Amino acid sequence: QVQLVESGGGLVQAGGSLRLSCVASGISFSLNAVEWYRQAPGKQREVVATITGGTLFRGGGNTNYSDSVKDRFTISRDNAKNTVYLQMKSLKPDDSAVYYCNTWTWLGSRRTDYWGQGTQVTVSS
Q1: pLDDT one-digit tens code per residue, 7-51
Q2: What is d(CA 91, CA 38) in angstroms, rounded to the nearest whole number?
Q3: Where do runs of H (alpha helix) occur along 40-111?
Q4: Other CB atoms closer than 10 Å to residue 82's CB: what's the count?
Q5: What angle (nearest 5°) sits at the alpha carbon of residue 103, between those of residues 97 and 106?
Q6: Which 8-state DSSP code applies to residue 95?
Q7: DSSP secondary structure letter of residue 43
Q8: What separation in angstroms does the CA of 88 have from each of 31, 63, 94, 106?
Q9: Number of other CB atoms surrounding residue 125 within 10 Å
């Protein structure tokens, strides 16, 4: 059974930093792409960062960011701990949201998504 558990959220002042963690069980983050999403009240869930799976030789570990967080957030992966991190700096009130990690598997043409329970990030002005 696949389980994702996020942690690290909290209340921080604008300009501050937080590091979110997503620990997986039942699936290997080293082989699978992982994304961080966020959802603010009244808004759609949006992807903010992606890290690809696989080895560096096979193009794994590539990262991508939404324009709204580029140069402020960093996604990384610790294969030994089966954990993906989202380092957030220079936080803004607009970054306030519930943050979720997401990964998925394919079986033929069928994709199955897995989500954590989310962790709340609140940035005060």
Answers
A1: 999 999 999 999 999 999 999 888 899 999 999 999 999 999 999
A2: 14
A3: none
A4: 16
A5: 150
A6: G
A7: S
A8: 24, 15, 13, 30
A9: 9
Phi then psi for 15, rounded to 5 degrees? Answer: 90, -10
- Could you give the CA distance from residue 54 to residue 62 in angstroms, rounded to a whole number? 9
With the C-alpha atoms ordered 107, 111, 117, 121, is the resulting torsion angle positive or negative? Answer: positive
Cβ pair 105, 89 in contact under 8 A: no
Q: What is the dihedral of CA 17, 102, 43, 63, to 10 degrees?
A: 60
CA torsion 70-40-83-124 (nearest 10°) is 70
Contact 2, 19 (CB under 8 A): no
Residue owning tokens 């937080």: 18
Locate 86 and state its tokens. 């989202």
Angstrom distance (rounded) from CA 21 to CA 88: 11
Q: What is the pLDDT of residues 56-76, one digit of tens each?
A: 666 568 899 999 999 999 999
